[in-house]
Amino acid sequence: MVAGSTPAGRTNSKENMPTEKIKVYLAGQANEYENNWKESFKLIEGVKFHDWEFDSDQTSADTYFPDDLKGIRSADYMVANPGIVSSEGTWIEIGYFYANNVKNPGDFCDKLIIVWQEGRNPKWSIEFVGKTGFVVSTVEEAKNKLLEMLT
């Protein structure tokens, strides 16, 4: 998105001006384990990102679990990067976002982007995951897909 441009979405019909920022939840691996993957997204203008590492109280599961779910529920879009390791929390986040953003079970969620890296296993499950939302191979592809969705 060009600097100064506004993402598609919420506008004030009278003036055709944005009334609030589009919200995107960044789910998945911590920056330290995935080369600061979330930081390039945060440079997109006109978007408010919820990053669980900073926007949720990480003191304990009693605090971060409800904080994360509130962030997911208020998000317009989700970009999820489970990395190549086990990511139980990420899959819970994806499922919660999916359930809140489709009309019927089995519908495709056009607000969900999942990064499925080449080294991620098991390979057979990508067919299942691909039924939920957009699946891309890299963080850069995810960013480009989000920019496309926002314009």
Polypeptide structure, described:
The protein has about 150 residues and is an alpha/beta fold. The chain has one domain (about 20-150): Rossmann fold (3-Layer(aba) Sandwich). It is built from five helices and seven strands. The longest helix has 14 residues, at about 90-100. The protein is globular.
Question: Which structural traits does this protein have?
Answer:
about 150 residues; alpha/beta; Rossmann fold; 5-stranded parallel sheet; two-stranded antiparallel sheet; 5 helices; globular
**How much strand content do the residues show?**
15-25%
Q: Quote the distance from N terminus to C terminus.
A: 8 Å
Largest sheet, strands/sense/barrel: 5 strands, parallel
Assign a percent range to the helix content: 25-40%
Order of helices and strands: EEEEHHEHEHEH
What top-tier CATH class fits best?
Alpha Beta
Tell me the count of domains: 1
Strand sequence of the main sheet, in spatial order?
Answer: 4-3-5-6-7
Rough outline: globular
Summarize the structure.
This protein is an alpha/beta fold and 151 residues long. It has five helices and seven strands, in the order E-E-E-E-H-H-E-H-E-H-E-H. It has one domain (19-150): Rossmann fold (3-Layer(aba) Sandwich), CATH 3.40.50.450.
How would the blueprint of this fold be written?
Blueprint: E1 11-12, E2 17-18, E3 22-28, E4 47-51, H1 52-55, H2 61-73, E5 77-81, H3 88-101, E6 112-115, H4 126-129, E7 134-136, H5 139-150
Parallel strand pairs: 3-4, 3-5, 5-6, 6-7
Antiparallel strand pairs: 1-2
Helix pairs in contact: 2-3
